[in-house]
Structures are given as structure tokens and as C-alpha cells.
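Limitations
The C-alpha cells in this dataset are predictions for the assembled complex, not deposited experimental models. Users should treat interface geometry with appropriate caution, especially where small molecules or nucleic acid strands are included. An illustrative entry is reproduced here so readers can see what is and is not provided.
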Amino acid sequence: MARSVVVTGGGTGIGLEIARRFVEAGDSVVIVGRRRAVLEQAAEGLGGGVAPLVCDLADPEAVEAALAALPARIDVLVNNAGSRETGFGAGPHALLARWRGDFERNVLTAVLLTESVRDRLTPGGGRVITISSIAALRGAGSYGAAKASLHAWNHFLAAQLGPSGITANIVAPGTVAGTEFFGPRLDEAEVSRRAARTLLGRVGERGEVAAAVEFLASAGAGFITGEILHCNGGELLGR
Ligand SMILES: NC(=O)c1ccc[n+]([C@@H]2O[C@H](COP(=O)([O-])OP(=O)(O)OC[C@H]3O[C@@H](n4cnc5c(N)ncnc54)[C@H](OP(=O)(O)O)[C@@H]3O)[C@@H](O)[C@H]2O)c1
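Predicted assembly:
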């Protein structure tokens, strides 16, 4: 049976590849993001069965307003939306903006939506999959701290959803090229530097993260919950 899937940040990068996997499996997919044109272009490229939904997931009012457009039943919720902003400058105000912003962009985007649609998750098979980052373990200041708090929240969520037969897991990618995440910061030299930190000698591809999500969403992953699946080419072993 076709699943009802919601992929946040599904208009670009890793989220777009995740959405593609579900579309190819014949599922019905809603992609969520802030930019209408980006979402509509992505939906067109993915073909039938994809609905774009414009929503700033860090804004509780926008999330509440989006509820009417979200499916009444959700088999798979992928909390992929997130970003790391740079260029805040120095001083306590800049620090506050950076830390608060990273928490809002990477934690509240997942928490607000998941809590808002919790009653729509399919009992006995529903899946919540959240994208964190290798930064949660390596450091990376406010962004890493925000991603790390997703790990703590996921464990709590898995315990709450477990009795209903719904799993909650994290996929934590290392560097993945071909997304909007780094902007111009990921030039050739930076890719080489990051590739050298992995055991495989290369950075990741979007489809490789999507494959991990696809597995955790599958029926075969039904006894896995509260876990963090690292997808980073062995980079952490080099710490
Ligand atoms: N690329 C990497 O190396 C890497 C490594 C580890 C983890 N990650 C994580 O992987 C996830 C996907 O990132 P990506 O690399 O694919 O970058 P990306 O291309 O920038 O994708 C991020 C997506 O999230 C959406 N988004 C951001 N803030 C949002 C908000 N407040 N409300 C709704 N949608 C929002 C963006 O769309 P709009 O701008 O239109 O809203 C965009 O489609 C992120 O959580 C990122 O932290 C990436």
C-alpha cells in the first residue's frame, strides 16, 4: 500500500533525494519548505504524487496554519529541514542570535512539526526519522549543540511513541556535497580536506543519506528505535 510521507526540506539537497526515494516506491509525498518556487520546481521534477507545502517550521503560527494542508494520516515523517547560518559577528548579541537561531532552525523545526502531527502518525508501523549531523559529535559550536539536542529529544520521542508501535530514529550524515547547505564555503579545497578525514577518502552523496532513511522507513527496520545511524564514511573513527 502506498505510504503517506512528509519530508521537510524536501525541495533541495538531501531532502529532495529522500523525497525521490519515496516517490519511486509509489508513495504519496508532501515536501515542506519556506520557498514556494523551489518546492514547486522540485515537485514538478519528481512527478505525480508530490504536494509542495510552504511553511516556516520554526514559526509555531505557520506550523499551526499548515496543519490543514498536511495529511490526516502520516506513515513516515522525515524531519530533514535545517541549516547553519554564518556571519553573525562578535559580541553577546551576535552570540545570542547565532545560538538561538541554530536551535530554532535545527531543533524547533523538527519538534514543532512532530509534536503537532503526533496523533496522525500511524500506530503499529509509523516512522519518525530526523536528520542530525556528525557535528553533534564533533563539536561545531551552536550548530553542533543544536544537532546534539536532537539526539536527546529523539530518545525521549522513541520512548513516548514506542507503546503505539511507532519508531523514532536519527540519521547523522557527515559531509554531503551537492546541497545548498554550505553555499560557496564548500569549495574544492574544503571538499578535499573533509574527504581526507573519512576512512573512505571521499565526502558523501545525497542518495547515500536517502538510502539510510529509506531503510529506517522500511518494514524491516521495525525493531529499531531510539537509534542514531551514522552515515559519514567512517569519519568519526578519526577523532
Ligand atoms: N550537507 C551536509 O554536509 C550535511 C551534513 C550533515 C547534516 N546535514 C543536515 O541535512 C539536512 C539537509 O541539509 P542539506 O545539506 O540538504 O541542505 P539544504 O539543501 O540547504 O536543505 C535544507 C532544506 O531545509 C529547508 N529549510 C530550512 N529551514 C527551514 C524552515 N525553517 N522551515 C522549513 N524548511 C526549512 C530548506 O528550504 P527553504 O530554505 O526553502 O526553507 C532546504 O530545502 C539539514 O538538517 C542539515 O543540517 C547536512
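Some entries come with short summary sentences. For this one: The pocket of NAP is lined by residues 8-9, 11-15, 32-35, 38, 55-58, 80-83, 105, 109, 131, 133, 173, 175-176, 179-181 (CB under 6 Å).
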